[in-house]
């Protein structure tokens, strides 16, 4: 069993949940897609199993995730301690310390004793009815002291948050947002673009918080619109190597696939009407670097982990913030040679739902208070990119935005009242290292010196330049003066400019930074040690227990 190293926030999450269970019977934790949610609850299970006789249940909403979760947990605890209860897998193992189960199979099983229940993808749990509630009620009858922990990347639905007064989950005991994870270097930033020939969703009817499927089916059926959208998307995604297309239904999926193949693109698809063997073959081919494009309906929106995805195409109109964030999240994991993820929106999803880490849901505050400096979402007319309202020029194409007179700023409401990502302006300090100095060419063609402060807890398989970086334009006198001061801060020298080989500067560096729009701005750097920071280890020596 290979040893995995926990990141600092993962240790914090496990400690927060463990502490919560001393005083509460229910806890809820949020971690964005790509943050290692399964690894975190595996660490919690490992901690719980150090108590003799403890039994743990892990409940999944989708059968296809059961085997995947077994493999993930088996990297933290011995596989012999893990059982599966799932009818379609022909496994009904309930006598081992850990039981991973599909809710469809285990919901009607009575008298199962658990000390700890893990509810994965807790946003799918209906607290008023259904299989989850029946199973939890049964578990509580068998053991009134059972502890229940919900895990989700999206703690809300279209009708509001899944926690709070009167909810099954009273509060979030731990939260990391997408913006937090981008700032820490564990997710890449999204570039959100509106596609040409986007669907007009203004006439779609709504049922239970989502567009009526029959209306969506009719909207996406127009063949000429589909051809224009695929043509536009292929032009905008030039240079992207791994693309996921989210479509509205199986017919739409097949037609998008046909159009891609007709244009000479290497593409495949997955959907629920394919048999298991076909789905697995197509997924394996895509993940093996074969087809450039994967077209899907909903099967990739949760639980699919393929970091090389660098472009997500939203061909499906939706009002669901969960579907929106889960789908885009497929492309936010970091990977070698990947700096960002392009999101092309043809369903008016970004315009409707807004920021990825604070979407428009019932009960959320979407009013913009310019006196507080909150950025609003606005669309660049030149490159069709959604950017924060505070930008004076588009960060993607450098096109300037018109400056409104002061009286218009006061009297006129913004066109779109939403943030692209929640602004985080409070400075944070991290201990990072080692540092790497190399040459870099910006999007505008400027030659720069890049200094990257690596996170010592990052798994080595990611490699690349992930961490916190700052750039110094070679042709700018002011930037070169700043570079000289920074080299003094980190105790480093350059052989000359330009230089070929990347320079490694050993040590631990105290880096203080803040957010400037959607980018990090380093305030100060101080070298505090000659050796790199060591990965933290999870401490399982707690004497008291919450069960």
State the distance separating the first and last CA atoms: 28 Å
Helix content: 25-40%
Morphology: globular
CATH topology of the largest domain: Rossmann fold
Helix count from the secondary structure assignment: 14
CATH C-level label of the largest domain = Alpha Beta
Sequence of strands across the biggest β-sheet: 4-3-5-2-6-7-1-10
CATH architecture of the largest domain: 3-Layer(aba) Sandwich
CATH-wise, what's the superfamily of the largest domain?
A: P-loop containing nucleotide triphosphate hydrolases
The residue ranges in which pLDDT falls below 50 over 5 or more consecutive positions are 365-375, 407-419, 457-465, 535-543
Query: Which structural class fits the helix and strand makeup?
Result: alpha/beta
What oligomeric state best describes the polypeptide chains here? single chain
Radius of gyration computed on alpha carbons: 25 Å
Main beta-sheet annotation: 8 strands, mixed
Kindly state the number of beta strands.
Answer: 27
Description:
With 547 residues, the chain is α/β, with parallel strands linked by helices. The chain folds into four domains: 8-176, Rossmann fold (3-Layer(aba) Sandwich), CATH 3.40.50; 183-353, P-loop containing nucleotide triphosphate hydrolases (Rossmann fold), CATH 3.40.50.300; 370-411, no CATH class; 428-529, no CATH class. Helix content is 26%, strand content 23%. The strands form seven sheets. An eight-stranded mixed β-sheet has the order 4-3-5-2-6-7-1-10. Strands 11-18-17-14-16-15 form a six-stranded parallel β-sheet, with helices on both faces. A four-stranded antiparallel β-sheet has the order 24-23-22-25, with helices on one face. A hairpin with a 4-residue loop joins strand 3 and strand 4 (91-92). The radius of gyration is 25 Å and the shape is globular. The model is unreliable at 365-375, 407-419, 457-465 and 535-543 (pLDDT under 50).
